[in-house]
Amino acid sequence: MMQEKMKQTEIGEIPESWSITKIKEIGEVITGSTPSTKNENFYGGEYNLISPADLDNGKYVQSAHRKLTQAGYERCTPVPQNSILVGCIGNIGKLGMINDNYSTTNQQINSVIVNSNYNPHFIYYMLHNCRQRLIQSAAKVTVPILNKKNFENFSIPIPPLSEQKKIATVLSKIEQNIDAKDELIKTIKELKKSMMQHLFTYGTKSEKTKGKTIYWKGWREIKLGEVAVLNYGKSLPKQKRILGDVPVFSSAGLIGKHNEPLVTEPGIIIGRKGTIGSVYKSDISFFPIDTTFYVSKSDTKCDLDFLYYLLKGLALDRLNSDSAVPGLNRNTAYAQDIKIPPLPEQKKIASILSIIDERIENYEGQKSALQALFKSMLNKLMTGQIRVDKLAIDVSELELQ
């Protein structure tokens, strides 16, 4: 089968059967508004007043930070289902779609009500791919603005309607798989949270008899300082790091690599300044900088993996000792009450939680792969590098949305 020839346009090469079309030809553009915030009767209802903060959180805007009453909603222009929302003040190019008939937007958003000659899902994805051009089209002022007139005259490549639907279907399927992975990850994380609460309260062998819980023998109630030494990290400015294989940790997590470790064995990193109470683990030699505490494998009487999960569950972030610069006081951390089981039980608890973490990591890897696929396919489909016009793709699900 011969590949369709490409033609040169003002926005680059596109297939010969595609056209360059302005937004105003694709549908009606509506700029939103905000009802008077001085009138309390306009706010606190069930209608969405969508702002840029509500965009770029999945294709559909499920809810809004601000809600309107019916009286407030009637002061605005309703935005119908399947309209495309585009941030045009400040947050240029942020996107979303409406999935209901009780939403409107503020003045920072232009909405496109797509006419029947175009597929709204395709237009959404095309604008997603054209985001950089949208940003470049905005007026270069203190707060970037893409006004309604300039937005209406913004041009995008458009294939025939049948191909639009097929392209949108392919991209929607990938996004659905990403969303499914995301929901699965959230579910497993909730399971882990519940499992941690149970394991650190009852252990792996507790049972209930006549309404009473029998605790596994050998558990001790002690202070954190009795089983672990919290050492101070060391300053290592970015300009002094020499690229190597040693992970460098701050209170925000892994921030780079260095050629020499401060700690020559596995250990735990705890946020001391900045993101206080954050907890990370390194299974190899590492370098914790001066915004952290660290516990090396030799500095604890506990199984290291068990201690890692125990610290994760202590919510150390609540122990902020400095309102100006968040900080975790070592003595305050040492004074925390903990319950410690015998070492074999510690290992069992850590093993159970490690298995859950491995599952989460596996699904997060799958999600990342799907996101990379979406990004690649988005660009190739929207520029005609990959064509689906001749493929038998069922678009019925998309048409029902």
Highlighted features:
single chain; 401 residues; alpha+beta; four-stranded antiparallel beta sheet; 10 helices; 23% strand
Describe the structure concisely.
The protein is an alpha+beta fold and about 400 residues long. Helix content is about 35%, strand content about 25%.
Q: What would you say this structure looks like, in words?
A:
This protein has 401 residues and is an alpha+beta fold. The chain has helices at 23-26, 70-73, 120-129, 131-137, 148-152, 161-202, 304-312, 330-334, 343-382, 396-400, and strands spanning 6-9, 12-15, 19-22, 27-31, 43-50, 66-68, 84-87, 95-97, 103-105, 109-114, 155-158, 207-209, 212-214, 220-223, 231-232, 246-250, 253-258, 267-271, 279-282, 287-288, 292-296, 337-340. The strands form 8 sheets. A 4-stranded antiparallel beta sheet has the order 4-10-7-8. It is elongated. It starts with 5 loop residues before the first strand and ends with a helix. The relative contact order is 0.12.
- Helix-residue proportion: 25-40%
For the sheet with most strands, the description reads: 4 strands, antiparallel
Helical/strand content category = alpha+beta
Q: Strands of the biggest beta sheet: in what spatial order?
A: 4-10-7-8
- Over the alpha carbons, how many angstroms does the gyration radius reach? 27 Å
**Count of DSSP E strands?**
22
Regions with little confidence, pLDDT below 50 for 5+ residues: none
